[in-house]
Amino acid sequence: MFISFTANPALQRFEARRRAWAAAREDSRLAYRAWVEAEEPERAFAFVVYRAAEEREATAARAFGLH
Length: 67
What we know:
The chain is elongated and about 45 Å long. The model has no long low-confidence stretch (mean pLDDT 85). The two termini are 22 Å apart. By secondary structure, the protein is mostly helical.
């Protein structure tokens, strides 16, 4: 999933920001699970994917007004 905000996310409708945050939160949850369950050859890459998903979730949370 790709989440894109305008220059000012607050200009987007509340429901659009809520959906973006919920989707990013789910992506972060799934990426965390993949990292935890990853075998050694893929573990480092899975961590990078998890951190990127976590950053997207934090950005969406700020746009939604949670942080």
